[in-house]
Amino acid sequence: MSLTPGTPAGQRKVAVAGVALSDCGRVDEATPYALHAQAARRALVDSGLDRSVIDGFASACLGTLAPVEVAEYLGLRPTWVDSTAVGGATWEVMAAHAADAIAAGHANAVLLVYGSTARADIKAKRRTANLSFGARGPLQFEVPYGHSLIAKYAMAARRHQHQYGTTLEQLAQVAVQARANAAGNPDAMYREPITVDEVLSGPMIADPFTKLHCCIRSDGGCAVLLVAEDHVPDLAKRPVWVLGSGTAVSHTTMSEWDDFTVSPAAVSGRLAFQRAGVCPAEIDLAEIYDAFTYMTLVTLEDLGFCAKGEGGAFVEQGRLLRDGELPVNTDGGGLAACHPGMRGLFLLVEAVRQLRGEAGPDRQVRKPGGALPQLAVASGTGGWFCSSGTVVLGAG
Protein backbone atom coordinates (compact mmCIF):
# COMPACT_ATOMS: atom_id res chain seq x y z
CA MET A 1 0.00 0.00 0.00
CA SER A 2 1.37 3.42 -0.94
CA LEU A 3 0.23 6.50 0.96
CA THR A 4 1.43 10.05 0.46
CA PRO A 5 1.92 12.33 3.48
CA GLY A 6 0.00 15.56 3.16
CA THR A 7 -2.78 14.08 1.06
CA PRO A 8 -6.13 15.41 2.30
CA ALA A 9 -7.55 12.55 4.32
CA GLY A 10 -9.87 14.13 6.86
CA GLN A 11 -9.48 12.95 10.42
CA ARG A 12 -8.26 9.40 9.97
CA LYS A 13 -8.42 6.85 12.77
CA VAL A 14 -5.08 5.94 14.31
CA ALA A 15 -4.08 2.44 15.35
CA VAL A 16 -1.20 0.91 17.26
CA ALA A 17 0.23 -1.53 14.74
CA GLY A 18 3.17 -3.00 16.63
CA VAL A 19 4.81 -2.94 20.04
CA ALA A 20 7.93 -4.56 21.44
CA LEU A 21 10.55 -4.49 24.16
CA SER A 22 14.27 -4.77 23.64
CA ASP A 23 16.27 -6.87 26.05
CA CYS A 24 15.56 -5.36 29.47
CA GLY A 25 16.73 -5.54 33.05
CA ARG A 26 20.45 -6.23 33.30
CA VAL A 27 21.96 -5.62 29.87
CA ASP A 28 25.70 -5.10 30.20
CA GLU A 29 26.81 -5.74 26.62
CA ALA A 30 24.73 -3.30 24.56
CA THR A 31 24.63 0.38 23.71
CA PRO A 32 21.50 2.52 23.92
CA TYR A 33 21.54 2.65 20.11
CA ALA A 34 21.54 -1.13 19.92
CA LEU A 35 18.53 -1.29 22.25
CA HIS A 36 16.71 1.25 20.08
CA ALA A 37 17.37 -0.87 17.00
CA GLN A 38 16.42 -4.13 18.67
CA ALA A 39 13.11 -2.74 19.91
CA ALA A 40 12.34 -1.13 16.53
CA ARG A 41 12.98 -4.35 14.61
CA ARG A 42 10.81 -6.34 17.00
CA ALA A 43 7.96 -3.83 16.79
CA LEU A 44 8.03 -4.02 12.98
CA VAL A 45 7.88 -7.80 13.12
CA ASP A 46 5.00 -7.53 15.57
CA SER A 47 3.12 -5.26 13.14
CA GLY A 48 3.68 -7.37 10.04
CA LEU A 49 4.57 -4.24 8.06
CA ASP A 50 7.72 -3.42 6.13
CA ARG A 51 10.03 -0.69 7.39
CA SER A 52 9.41 1.22 4.14
CA VAL A 53 6.02 2.34 5.48
CA ILE A 54 7.63 4.41 8.23
CA ASP A 55 7.54 8.10 7.37
CA GLY A 56 7.46 9.49 10.90
CA PHE A 57 9.89 9.09 13.77
CA ALA A 58 9.95 10.19 17.41
CA SER A 59 12.91 9.92 19.76
CA ALA A 60 14.36 11.94 22.63
CA CYS A 61 17.31 12.23 24.99
CA LEU A 62 19.88 10.27 22.99
CA GLY A 63 22.52 11.73 20.73
CA THR A 64 23.39 15.30 19.87
CA LEU A 65 20.44 15.92 17.56
CA ALA A 66 17.74 13.51 18.60
CA PRO A 67 15.86 12.20 16.71
CA VAL A 68 18.12 12.84 13.69
CA GLU A 69 21.01 10.83 15.07
CA VAL A 70 18.89 7.87 16.11
CA ALA A 71 16.96 7.86 12.83
CA GLU A 72 20.24 7.74 10.95
CA TYR A 73 21.41 4.82 13.10
CA LEU A 74 18.20 2.97 12.25
CA GLY A 75 18.52 3.76 8.55
CA LEU A 76 15.34 5.86 8.45
CA ARG A 77 14.66 9.07 6.53
CA PRO A 78 11.43 10.35 8.06
CA THR A 79 9.47 13.32 6.76
CA TRP A 80 7.77 13.90 10.13
CA VAL A 81 9.80 14.02 13.36
CA ASP A 82 9.33 14.79 17.03
CA SER A 83 11.94 15.19 19.75
CA THR A 84 9.76 16.58 22.52
CA ALA A 85 11.45 15.93 25.87
CA VAL A 86 9.35 16.46 28.99
CA GLY A 87 10.72 13.72 31.22
CA GLY A 88 8.70 10.60 31.90
CA ALA A 89 5.65 11.99 30.11
CA THR A 90 7.63 12.32 26.86
CA TRP A 91 6.24 9.24 25.18
CA GLU A 92 2.57 9.87 25.89
CA VAL A 93 3.05 13.45 24.64
CA MET A 94 4.84 12.14 21.54
CA ALA A 95 2.08 9.59 20.97
CA ALA A 96 -0.46 12.41 21.13
CA HIS A 97 1.54 14.44 18.61
CA ALA A 98 1.96 11.45 16.32
CA ALA A 99 -1.71 10.53 16.45
CA ASP A 100 -2.69 14.09 15.56
CA ALA A 101 -0.24 14.11 12.65
CA ILE A 102 -1.51 10.80 11.30
CA ALA A 103 -5.14 11.83 11.72
CA ALA A 104 -4.45 15.03 9.74
CA GLY A 105 -2.58 13.21 6.97
CA HIS A 106 0.85 14.65 7.77
CA ALA A 107 2.27 11.17 8.36
CA ASN A 108 1.10 7.62 7.86
CA ALA A 109 3.27 5.45 10.10
CA VAL A 110 5.17 6.91 13.06
CA LEU A 111 7.72 4.91 15.03
CA LEU A 112 8.29 5.85 18.67
CA VAL A 113 11.41 4.27 20.13
CA TYR A 114 13.45 4.46 23.33
CA GLY A 115 16.49 2.73 24.77
CA SER A 116 18.78 3.31 27.73
CA THR A 117 21.62 1.60 29.56
CA ALA A 118 21.20 3.70 32.70
CA ARG A 119 21.96 0.81 35.02
CA ALA A 120 24.91 -0.58 33.06
CA ASP A 121 26.46 2.89 32.69
CA ILE A 122 26.54 3.43 36.44
CA LYS A 123 27.82 -0.08 37.07
CA ALA A 124 30.66 0.50 34.56
CA LYS A 125 31.32 3.99 36.00
CA ARG A 126 30.50 5.65 32.67
CA ARG A 127 28.22 8.03 34.54
CA THR A 128 27.04 8.90 38.03
CA ALA A 129 23.57 9.27 39.47
CA ASN A 130 21.80 12.58 38.89
CA LEU A 131 21.24 14.91 41.81
CA SER A 132 19.47 17.61 39.80
CA PHE A 133 18.30 18.44 36.30
CA GLY A 134 20.54 21.50 36.10
CA ALA A 135 21.45 24.74 37.80
CA ARG A 136 20.41 27.40 35.31
CA GLY A 137 17.27 29.42 34.88
CA PRO A 138 14.62 29.13 37.60
CA LEU A 139 16.22 25.97 38.98
CA GLN A 140 19.22 27.95 40.21
CA PHE A 141 17.17 29.04 43.22
CA GLU A 142 16.61 25.46 44.40
CA VAL A 143 19.74 23.52 43.42
CA PRO A 144 22.10 25.14 46.01
CA TYR A 145 19.93 23.70 48.78
CA GLY A 146 20.26 20.11 47.57
CA HIS A 147 16.67 19.98 46.43
CA SER A 148 16.95 16.79 44.38
CA LEU A 149 14.19 15.21 42.32
CA ILE A 150 13.36 12.59 44.93
CA ALA A 151 13.22 15.29 47.63
CA LYS A 152 10.52 17.09 45.66
CA TYR A 153 8.39 13.95 45.45
CA ALA A 154 8.99 13.26 49.13
CA MET A 155 7.80 16.76 50.06
CA ALA A 156 4.68 16.30 47.97
CA ALA A 157 3.95 12.96 49.61
CA ARG A 158 4.33 14.50 53.06
CA ARG A 159 1.88 17.24 52.10
CA HIS A 160 -0.67 14.64 50.98
CA GLN A 161 -0.22 12.82 54.28
CA HIS A 162 -0.71 16.04 56.23
CA GLN A 163 -3.70 17.24 54.22
CA TYR A 164 -5.61 13.99 53.77
CA GLY A 165 -4.32 11.62 56.41
CA THR A 166 -2.65 9.31 53.89
CA THR A 167 -0.49 6.78 55.72
CA LEU A 168 2.89 5.25 54.97
CA GLU A 169 1.22 1.84 55.04
CA GLN A 170 -1.11 2.93 52.24
CA LEU A 171 1.79 4.21 50.14
CA ALA A 172 3.62 0.94 50.79
CA GLN A 173 0.65 -0.97 49.42
CA VAL A 174 1.43 0.50 45.99
CA ALA A 175 4.85 -1.15 46.06
CA VAL A 176 3.48 -4.42 47.43
CA GLN A 177 0.85 -4.71 44.70
CA ALA A 178 3.29 -3.70 41.95
CA ARG A 179 5.60 -6.52 43.04
CA ALA A 180 2.65 -8.94 43.11
CA ASN A 181 1.83 -8.01 39.51
CA ALA A 182 5.48 -8.43 38.53
CA ALA A 183 5.37 -12.03 39.74
CA GLY A 184 3.49 -12.92 36.57
CA ASN A 185 5.93 -11.11 34.28
CA PRO A 186 8.96 -13.21 33.28
CA ASP A 187 10.73 -10.05 32.07
CA ALA A 188 10.43 -8.21 35.41
CA MET A 189 13.67 -7.58 37.32
CA TYR A 190 12.10 -8.25 40.72
CA ARG A 191 9.35 -10.85 41.09
CA GLU A 192 9.62 -11.95 44.70
CA PRO A 193 6.71 -10.83 46.92
CA ILE A 194 7.26 -8.10 49.49
CA THR A 195 5.24 -7.00 52.50
CA VAL A 196 4.22 -3.63 53.85
CA ASP A 197 6.56 -4.14 56.80
CA GLU A 198 9.48 -4.79 54.43
CA VAL A 199 8.74 -1.58 52.55
CA LEU A 200 8.54 0.46 55.75
CA SER A 201 11.67 -1.02 57.32
CA GLY A 202 13.95 -0.52 54.33
CA PRO A 203 16.78 2.02 54.20
CA MET A 204 15.58 5.62 54.10
CA ILE A 205 16.22 7.41 50.81
CA ALA A 206 14.23 10.64 51.22
CA ASP A 207 11.74 10.90 54.05
CA PRO A 208 9.15 9.35 53.85
CA PHE A 209 10.46 7.16 50.99
CA THR A 210 12.43 4.07 51.86
CA LYS A 211 14.18 2.12 49.11
CA LEU A 212 11.13 0.07 48.08
CA HIS A 213 9.03 3.22 47.67
CA CYS A 214 11.37 4.12 44.79
CA CYS A 215 11.65 2.78 41.27
CA ILE A 216 14.41 0.39 40.32
CA ARG A 217 17.21 1.28 37.91
CA SER A 218 17.42 -0.95 34.87
CA ASP A 219 18.51 -1.10 31.25
CA GLY A 220 16.09 -1.55 28.39
CA GLY A 221 14.17 -0.14 25.50
CA CYS A 222 10.90 -0.44 23.65
CA ALA A 223 9.11 0.72 20.51
CA VAL A 224 5.57 1.50 19.41
CA LEU A 225 4.42 1.86 15.80
CA LEU A 226 1.36 4.04 15.15
CA VAL A 227 -0.33 3.91 11.73
CA ALA A 228 -3.23 5.35 9.80
CA GLU A 229 -6.32 3.18 9.54
CA ASP A 230 -5.46 2.55 5.87
CA HIS A 231 -2.72 0.16 7.02
CA VAL A 232 -4.94 -1.90 9.32
CA PRO A 233 -5.85 -4.57 6.72
CA ASP A 234 -2.16 -5.35 6.35
CA LEU A 235 -1.41 -5.80 10.06
CA ALA A 236 -0.31 -9.12 11.49
CA LYS A 237 -2.53 -8.63 14.57
CA ARG A 238 -5.75 -6.88 15.41
CA PRO A 239 -5.24 -3.16 15.96
CA VAL A 240 -5.51 -1.22 19.17
CA TRP A 241 -7.03 2.20 18.53
CA VAL A 242 -5.90 5.55 19.93
CA LEU A 243 -9.20 6.96 21.16
CA GLY A 244 -8.04 10.19 22.76
CA SER A 245 -5.13 11.96 24.37
CA GLY A 246 -4.29 14.96 26.49
CA THR A 247 -1.15 16.78 27.56
CA ALA A 248 -0.35 19.37 30.21
CA VAL A 249 2.54 21.09 31.97
CA SER A 250 2.50 22.57 35.43
CA HIS A 251 5.67 24.11 36.88
CA THR A 252 9.44 23.90 37.13
CA THR A 253 10.15 25.26 40.59
CA MET A 254 8.34 24.02 43.66
CA SER A 255 7.49 27.60 44.58
CA GLU A 256 5.28 27.83 41.48
CA TRP A 257 3.41 24.58 42.17
CA ASP A 258 -0.05 25.64 43.26
CA ASP A 259 -0.91 22.45 45.15
CA PHE A 260 1.54 19.64 45.99
CA THR A 261 -1.36 17.17 46.06
CA VAL A 262 -2.45 17.78 42.45
CA SER A 263 -0.49 16.69 39.38
CA PRO A 264 -0.93 17.85 35.76
CA ALA A 265 -2.63 14.50 35.09
CA ALA A 266 -5.74 16.22 36.45
CA VAL A 267 -5.71 18.22 33.20
CA SER A 268 -4.27 15.71 30.71
CA GLY A 269 -6.57 12.97 31.97
CA ARG A 270 -9.69 15.08 31.72
CA LEU A 271 -8.79 16.06 28.15
CA ALA A 272 -7.96 12.49 27.12
CA PHE A 273 -11.20 11.07 28.50
CA GLN A 274 -13.28 13.85 26.93
CA ARG A 275 -11.67 13.36 23.53
CA ALA A 276 -12.05 9.59 23.75
CA GLY A 277 -15.70 9.89 24.75
CA VAL A 278 -15.29 7.65 27.81
CA CYS A 279 -15.17 8.13 31.56
CA PRO A 280 -12.79 6.69 34.17
CA ALA A 281 -15.41 4.21 35.38
CA GLU A 282 -15.30 2.50 31.97
CA ILE A 283 -11.54 1.88 32.01
CA ASP A 284 -10.49 -1.75 32.46
CA LEU A 285 -6.83 -1.19 33.37
CA ALA A 286 -4.38 1.65 33.89
CA GLU A 287 -0.65 1.90 33.22
CA ILE A 288 0.68 4.77 35.35
CA TYR A 289 4.16 6.22 35.72
CA ASP A 290 5.50 5.09 39.07
CA ALA A 291 8.96 6.39 39.83
CA PHE A 292 7.71 6.58 43.43
CA THR A 293 4.69 5.11 45.17
CA TYR A 294 3.15 8.54 45.68
CA MET A 295 3.04 9.08 41.92
CA THR A 296 0.69 6.15 41.47
CA LEU A 297 -1.58 7.22 44.31
CA VAL A 298 -1.97 10.86 43.31
CA THR A 299 -2.31 10.07 39.59
CA LEU A 300 -5.18 7.70 40.35
CA GLU A 301 -6.90 10.59 42.09
CA ASP A 302 -6.17 13.07 39.33
CA LEU A 303 -7.37 10.74 36.58
CA GLY A 304 -10.68 10.46 38.42
CA PHE A 305 -10.56 6.86 39.62
CA CYS A 306 -11.19 8.13 43.14
CA ALA A 307 -11.82 11.50 44.75
CA LYS A 308 -9.00 13.82 45.78
CA GLY A 309 -7.61 12.69 49.10
CA GLU A 310 -9.08 9.18 48.83
CA GLY A 311 -6.13 7.60 47.03
CA GLY A 312 -4.79 6.02 50.21
CA ALA A 313 -8.02 4.20 50.95
CA PHE A 314 -8.35 3.26 47.28
CA VAL A 315 -4.99 1.52 46.96
CA GLU A 316 -5.03 -0.33 50.29
CA GLN A 317 -7.89 -2.61 49.24
CA GLY A 318 -5.87 -4.55 46.65
CA ARG A 319 -7.57 -2.78 43.78
CA LEU A 320 -4.33 -2.45 41.80
CA LEU A 321 -3.72 -6.19 41.48
CA ARG A 322 -4.20 -8.01 38.19
CA ASP A 323 -7.54 -9.38 39.43
CA GLY A 324 -8.41 -6.22 41.35
CA GLU A 325 -11.06 -3.63 40.70
CA LEU A 326 -8.64 -1.51 38.62
CA PRO A 327 -5.49 -3.41 37.58
CA VAL A 328 -2.60 -0.92 37.57
CA ASN A 329 0.91 -1.43 36.17
CA THR A 330 0.17 -5.01 35.28
CA ASP A 331 3.79 -5.75 34.32
CA GLY A 332 5.09 -4.62 37.72
CA GLY A 333 5.75 -1.05 36.69
CA GLY A 334 8.85 0.96 37.40
CA LEU A 335 8.81 -0.26 41.00
CA ALA A 336 9.45 -3.87 40.00
CA ALA A 337 9.62 -4.58 36.25
CA CYS A 338 11.97 -2.02 34.70
CA HIS A 339 12.82 1.66 34.79
CA PRO A 340 15.67 2.58 32.44
CA GLY A 341 15.57 6.34 32.94
CA MET A 342 12.24 7.19 31.29
CA ARG A 343 9.42 4.67 31.37
CA GLY A 344 6.55 6.34 29.53
CA LEU A 345 6.76 4.24 26.36
CA PHE A 346 6.69 1.01 28.37
CA LEU A 347 3.24 2.02 29.63
CA LEU A 348 1.89 2.02 26.08
CA VAL A 349 3.49 -1.33 25.25
CA GLU A 350 1.93 -3.04 28.27
CA ALA A 351 -1.50 -1.47 27.67
CA VAL A 352 -1.50 -2.69 24.06
CA ARG A 353 -0.46 -6.21 25.03
CA GLN A 354 -3.23 -6.36 27.61
CA LEU A 355 -5.89 -5.17 25.15
CA ARG A 356 -4.70 -7.74 22.60
CA GLY A 357 -4.81 -10.52 25.18
CA GLU A 358 -1.07 -11.17 24.82
CA ALA A 359 0.13 -10.60 28.38
CA GLY A 360 0.39 -14.30 29.19
CA PRO A 361 -1.52 -16.58 31.54
CA ASP A 362 0.00 -15.20 34.73
CA ARG A 363 -0.68 -11.50 34.16
CA GLN A 364 -3.43 -11.16 31.55
CA VAL A 365 -6.29 -9.04 32.84
CA ARG A 366 -9.78 -10.45 32.39
CA LYS A 367 -13.11 -8.78 32.92
CA PRO A 368 -15.80 -10.49 35.00
CA GLY A 369 -16.89 -13.51 32.99
CA GLY A 370 -13.49 -13.93 31.36
CA ALA A 371 -13.69 -11.37 28.56
CA LEU A 372 -10.59 -9.43 27.54
CA PRO A 373 -10.27 -5.77 28.58
CA GLN A 374 -11.59 -3.26 26.08
CA LEU A 375 -10.32 0.10 27.37
CA ALA A 376 -6.99 1.10 28.87
CA VAL A 377 -5.32 4.34 29.87
CA ALA A 378 -1.59 5.09 29.89
CA SER A 379 -0.54 8.17 31.84
CA GLY A 380 3.05 9.40 31.97
CA THR A 381 4.50 11.95 34.38
CA GLY A 382 7.59 14.06 33.85
CA GLY A 383 10.00 15.77 36.22
CA TRP A 384 8.46 16.29 39.68
CA PHE A 385 4.89 16.37 38.40
CA CYS A 386 5.95 19.07 35.92
CA SER A 387 4.32 17.47 32.87
CA SER A 388 1.76 14.84 32.02
CA GLY A 389 0.56 12.96 28.99
CA THR A 390 -2.45 10.65 29.00
CA VAL A 391 -3.56 8.33 26.21
CA VAL A 392 -6.79 6.30 26.09
CA LEU A 393 -6.62 3.10 24.05
CA GLY A 394 -9.39 0.79 22.85
CA ALA A 395 -9.29 -2.82 21.65
CA GLY A 396 -9.92 -3.43 17.96
Largest sheet strand order: 3-2-4-7-1-8-11-10-9
What is the C-level CATH assignment? Alpha Beta
Helix content: 25-40%
Number of beta strands:
11
Q: What structural class do you assign from the helix and strand content?
A: alpha/beta
Measured between the Cα atoms of the first and last residue, the distance is 21 Å
Percentage of β-strand residues: 15-25%
Measured on Cα atoms, how large is the radius of gyration? Answer: 20 Å
**Low-pLDDT residue spans:** 1-9
CATH superfamily: Thiolase/Chalcone synthase
Structure annotation, total helices:
12
Shape designation: globular
The main sheet comes to: 9 strands, mixed
CATH architecture: 3-Layer(aba) Sandwich
Number of domains: 1
Overall average pLDDT:
93
Helix/strand order, N-terminal first: EHEHEHEHHHHEEEEHEHHHHEE
CATH topology: Peroxisomal Thiolase, Chain A, domain 1
